[in-house]
Design brief:
The complex is a heterodimer of chains A (567) and B (587). Chain A is an alpha+beta fold and 567 residues long. Chain A is 52% helix and 16% strand. A 6-stranded mixed sheet of chain A has the order 8-10-11-13-12-14. In chain A, strands 3-4-6-5 form a 4-stranded antiparallel sheet, with helices on one face. Helix content of chain B is 36%, strand content 16%. In chain B, α1 runs parallel beside α7 and α11 runs parallel beside α14. The chains are: A alpha+beta (567), B alpha/beta (587).
Chain lengths: 567, 587
């Protein structure tokens, strides 16, 4: 136990006392002196009146004393101050009071001693002695607490038994820190009803009545029956009293619980409203993100379109410029035959050379345009096969819209679930094949099938599984020469010939070869064409293309003349 | 409850040295080669080594159900949507017999499934060991025989692979179906040096068909003025939905489906006439049984009672009748045919499409007078209830609300009962959606549990199970498994009318008085039960509540359930069924 000289005089921390113990005092001040007074008192202690409600705030010893002193100045006496510190004592316990009902005053004081850390970090309570109707407690602290602190405390201790509808306890103060003692020591004594008291009273009344009857009538039977009757009546009355008390408490408890329930419902409703708002916010955010994404996609699409347009224009120009060039060359040849001497001959020779140069440049330009994709880096992507048939069928339907053509598309069970392929190459090959089928079919049907094929790829006859896109149409067909031109492999240094046709198909052939696939065709003019485009299931290295296909013989084997329809 | 009486064999939890392949290793290698990634079951002592290795295998997920019947249903659901072999397992004795109902469902509907059951050790066979189900005792192999394509007990390690290959061949060849292997507990960890067979080498790809018959069919179809394609569940088993559609569009043929085949042809397609048969649509019935139709091509339907309105003679009378089925035994069984097409539906339809294509190439045109763009408006029984605002709700009203919010790629399961009739009649399964109904065997509880397997097979795809309150009481505990494995989006919609509705209303229509014993004595609080099981749950009692509940359920990060309390006095569309049972259909 620390002596007074050892106490810390001015080393207050900001977590010495819980301000919650002063809430009753604050309520008293608000109601009896006005809210402005409380504001003023709080301000003096560097606080606000809100600190006396809503949530627990801890204050230093100095602040605590300042509040108490200022509050005391608003009172007429110490007694009034003490009562104000436990203003509405029972109400302050709230629903906890119903739990406390199951305890006794002594056990309540025990609990108070044990949980004292909830109200102060600088003081410690200890129980000295306790009994059925008395309790002695000691309080030690290292703070130089004033008498006001002591008074704010003792009122609470005195009113403890009132929670059981008993009279307040009588408090004897043995020691007090404010008076120079090393601790505060309180001895509490309260009225504890003797439980057997009503029975004893009943018994005594019965006994007295019995004695009177015996004295009057010499009736000895009443000597036993009347005391027993008295005990029984007393017991019934006690039961009735207890029952009434229980009923009152139940009613009160139900009211409190109902209020709590209503408050909880309100809180829940508020949470639901907040969640709703949150959902709305998220929805709004998602909408905005989706809108931005759409805008970005449009930009990307337009850029992609521009790029495609650039390539197409380049290719178209390089192709179409050859027509006037042929006119120029033809006329030059014509003039060459007419002008056989003079300056005109040199001029015509210059014109002829210039035309040759232009033609070479155009061929290079066309080469560049058609090989533009090959310069791109392959970026394999997973393509789901199952939904593809439906997509392609729709696309083909759009291409032949308005014509008498039945479009059919399906995927067989042998088809792989997915393939890893460069999306751009895949799309370009498919676009070429669909566009060709749609372009050259006037009536009849186009059938499109996605299936799997085992193709021999290795020198020792190893086979690999491919996704095969089969497109069969009833169009005008392609003649054999044209097919061979489409499939003819061209070495890198060989320039394009002037007879190059079917740019789309030959491009598809090269693109497929680039990813390790191949294109087969079976066609007959005026009967129809069937293409088989084989895509490898897994992406392969650029260098591992099907080199064996790049021979004329291999191309020839892939060109099959369609059988007669009648067969 | 089928927990085994046997403790796990001592010392078997540790695998032997990796160098020596065991029976279980060979077994699993075959399963993985067949694409198996999930095994459903409840571990027990006599199958402990199998489950222990499965649990430890990173490539196979073990899904533990609450009852072995649930394991079989889950495997069934998994196989139906993935169209791959599924595996379920149960220990010996009751663990095995509990599987039987689920296996029977798979058998009736042609679902490929491998069923593995436990058995006592070989040295104890015939001695009366606990839960013994050997040939000398209660013969589990014989019990499974009528409901599987192959049922056998493996006696020696050397014959395991042979039995397994044979079982897989049966399960996946021809009309698929379940197969059963019963394996004594002491065999699993025996060493086994077995030559590896690739699936292609032991399981033939039987895509045979009669080309001449297909050519004839193509010619007949091209000449038909009012052709009808009648699609059954076989189309779904063969994965021939696209091919059926291709043929229908090439010919401009109208399409009807059996109740079990509902949704195999998009019901919002202009050529669709809906369902013929049990709870079917008037347009389908009037057209197909009418006198104008001159050709019917059935595809993958056995033409049983529920599909043919009690074998209505008008389906055949005055028409050319073509039947396509993989099972020759089904051809001409109930109706004489003009042309039989025996083979896998997808293979034959592909070939048929190419023949039609060739005929078109030769300048022929289909003679069909059906307008491919003219949509036949559908009429429903008690149509006015679809928009009714009455409380309690009508089964029609909430289905109309569901139709508005059903995701475009939803897989809808229906259980068995009155709600099933409403599902068949009132729901429209559009392009991209799928409908699953176990009507072959008709076991209640299938539509409640099989969606769990489907959700595992198709993660991310919305799985919607429409079930009745009676189905929930039978197998609802399996929903706990869905919670445990964190499946979503999966929504159970429980139509609660507090009774076995189909039985009650049928008895009301058929007999002099209703069978009141099928009404529950105590109202069921299904949403509350679901919440207690860990599902997010909603209760719908009034018009206007369903759509928002469904949208929220779709967003739930776990399994969800919507209890819809409906008016028990509103009868499901029982008309055809009652007429069928009563024998009123004109023959």
């Amino acid at each position: 136990m620390s002596s007074k000289s050892e106490r810390v005089v001015e080393n207050s921390g900001s977590t010495d006392y819980s301000l919650r113990v002063l809430w009753p005092l604050a309520r008293w001040l608000e109601e009896h002196r006005g809210a402005a007074v409380l504001d003023e008192i709080a301000a003096k202690a560097d606080l606000t009146s809100e600190d006396f409600s809503a949530r627990t705030k801890w204050v230093s010893h100095v602040q605590f004393e300042q509040i108490l002193l200022a509050a005391r100045n608003q009172m007429d006496s110490d007694e009034q101050f003490k009562n104000a510190c436990c203003y509405r004592f029972r109400d302050n316990y709230g629903p906890l009071r119903f739990m406390i009902w199951a305890l006794t005053p002594a056990s309540l004081f025990d609990v108070a001693v044990k949980v004292s850390k909830m109200v102060t970090n600088v003081g410690r309570f200890e129980t000295i002695e306790s009994g059925n109707n008395h309790y002695t407690v000691r309080y030690t602290t290292d703070r130089p607490e004033s008498r006001l602190v002591c008074l704010s405390r003792v009122g609470q201790w005195e009113l403890g038994p009132t929670l059981w509808d008993l009279p307040p306890a009588q408090l004897e103060e043995h020691k007090c820190v404010a008076r120079g003692d090393d601790c505060c020591e309180y001895h509490l004594r309260w009225f504890a009803r003797w439980r057997a008291m009503p029975l004893v009273i009943g018994f005594l009344i019965g006994a007295v009545a019995a004695a009177f009857i015996i004295w009057q009538d010499k009736n000895w039977i009443s000597s036993t029956t009347l005391p027993i009757l008295g005990v029984a009546i007393a017991h019934m009355m006690e039961l009735r009293r207890t029952s009434r008390l229980n009923t009152e408490m139940n009613t009160e408890m139900n009211t409190v619980l109902r209020n709590l329930g209503e408050e909880e419902a309100e809180a829940r409703a508020e949470i639901v409203a907040l969640q709703e708002r949150q959902r709305e916010w998220i929805g709004m955010m998602e909408t905005q993100v989706a809108e931005r994404t759409t805008v970005l996609e449009r930009i990307v699409d337009s850029l992609d379109g521009l790029q495609k347009s650039r390539v197409t224009t380049l290719r178209g120009f390089s192709h179409d410029l050859r027509n006037p060039l042929f006119v120029l060359k033809g006329n030059t040849q014509f003039l060459k035959d007419l002008v056989i001497e003079g300056e005109g001959v040199e001029a015509i020779r210059d014109m002829d050379m210039a035309a040759e140069q232009i033609e070479t440049m155009l061929l290079q330009l066309m080469e560049l345009a058609t090989q533009e994709t090959s310069a791109q880096r392959l970026t394999p992507k997973r393509v789901e096969v199952q939904p593809l048939a439906d997509t392609l069928r729709r696309r083909l339907r759009a291409l032949v819209f308005g014509r008498d053509i039945k479009v059919t598309g399906f995927c067989t069970r042998e088809a792989p679930d997915h393939i890893d392929v460069d999306q751009l190459v895949f799309d370009r090959v498919i676009d070429n094949l669909l566009t060709n089928a749609a372009k050259y079919t006037e009536r009849g049907s186009i059938i499109l099938e996605l299936t799997a094929s085992l193709l021999t790829t290795g020198p020792k006859g190893e086979s690999e599984e491919y996704l095969t896109l089969k497109i069969s149409d009833t169009g005008r067909g392609i003649d054999a020469d044209q097919i061979q031109r489409v499939f003819r492999p061209r070495p890198n240094n060989e320039p394009s010939t002037r007879e190059s046709r079917g740019v789309g198909l030959s491009s598809a052939v090269r693109l497929l070869a680039q990813i390790g696939g191949r294109l087969d065709v079976m066609s007959k003019p005026d009967v129809g064409t069937t293409f088989w485009a084989h895509f490898p299931r897994t992406a392969i290295e650029n260098t591992r293309v099907m080199a064996a296909d790049e021979t004329f013989e291999s191309v020839i084997t892939r060109v099959v003349t369609i059988r007669k329809a009648a067969s | 409850m089928t927990s085994s009486f046997h403790p796990p064999p001592v010392g078997r939890s540790q695998p032997p040295p990796a160098a020596a392949p065991r029976v279980i290793d060979v077994f699993l290698r075959y399963l993985k080669a067949e694409g198996v990634s999930v095994v459903f079951g409840i571990p027990g002592g006599l199958l402990y080594p199998f489950f222990a290795v499965i649990e430890a295998d990173p490539d196979i997920e073990l899904i533990v159900s609450k009852h072995e019947e649930g394991a079989a249903f889950m495997a069934d659901g998994h196989a139906r949507v993935s169209r791959r072999l599924s595996v379920c397992a149960g220990t010996s004795g009751p663990g095995a017999t509990n599987l039987l109902t689920g296996v029977a469902c798979a058998f009736a509907d042609g679902v490929p499934m491998l069923v593995v059951t436990g058995q006592v050790a070989t040295h104890a066979l015939g001695k009366g060991a606990a839960q013994e189900t050997s040939r000398e005792d209660m013969d589990i192999v014989a019990m499974f025989r009528p409901v599987t394509k192959y049922s056998a007990m493996v006696n020696t390690p050397a014959s395991v692979a042979q039995h397994l290959r044979r079982a897989l061949r049966h399960a996946l060849t021809g009309r698929p179906g379940p197969v059963h292997l019963n394996i004594p507990v002491d065999l699993w960890e025996r060493p086994l040096h077995e030559e590896w067979f690739d699936p292609r080498s032991y399981r033939p790809e039987t895509r045979t068909f009669d080309r001449v018959a297909v050519q004839s069919a193509a010619t007949m179809l091209m000449s038909a003025k009012r052709p009808i394609l009648f699609a059954g569940a076989g189309v779904g088993i063969a994965g021939a939905e696209e091919h059926l559609r291709a043929v229908a569009e090439l010919l401009s043929a109208r399409v009807v489906t059996t109740p079990r085949g509902k949704g195999l042809f998009p019901e919002n397609h202009p050529l669709s006439l809906g369902v013929l048969g049990f709870a079917g649509h008037a347009e389908a019935r009037n057209t197909v049984l009418g006198k104008e139709v001159d050709l019917v091509l059935t595809v993958g339907t056995s033409l049983n009672e529920t599909a043919t309105l009690n074998w209505a003679p008008a389906l055949r009378a005055g028409k050319q009748f073509l039947q396509l089925d993989i099972d020759p035994d089904k051809i001409g069984r109930n109706y004489p045919v003009d042309l039989a097409l025996v083979g896998d539906a997808q293979t034959v339809l592909v070939e048929l499409a190419y023949h039609l294509h060739r005929l078109l190439r030769d300048g022929q045109r289909p003679a069909s007078v059906w307008d491919p763009k003219e949509v036949v408006p559908r009429t429903y029984e008690a149509q006015e209830l679809l928009t009714s605002d009455q409380v309690p709700l009508t089964p029609q009203r909430w289905r109309a609300d569901l139709q508005k919010v059903l995701p475009a790629n939803a897989v809808v399961f229906s259980d068995i009962g009155g709600h099933m009739l409403s599902n068949i009649h009132y729901l429209t399964i559009a392009e991209g959606q799928k409908f699953v109904l176990n009507l072959g065997f008709g076991s209640m509880g299938h539509g409640t549990v099989a969606p769990i397997g489907a959700a595992l097979a198709m993660p991310g795809r919305p799985i919607i199970a429409i079930i009745g309150d009676a189905c929930f009481t039978m197998n609802g505990m399996e929903l706990i498994s869905a919670v445990e494995y964190g499946l979503h989006p999966i929504i159970w919609i429980v139509e609660n009318n507090n009774m076995h509705g189909i039985t009650y209303h049928a008895s009301l229509a058929l007999a002099s008085g209703a069978l009141s014993s099928v009404r529950y004595k105590r109202p069921l609080q299904i949403a509350s039960m679901a919440r207690a099981m860990g599902l997010a749950a909603w209760l719908v009692e009034e018009p206007g509540q369903f759509e928002s509940a469904f949208r929220e359920a779709l967003e739930a990060q776990g399994p969800a359930l919507i209890e819809v309390r409906v008016d028990p006095n509103v009868s499901p569309p029982l008309g055809d069924r009652v007429r069928s049972i009563s024998g009123f259909v004109d023959k």
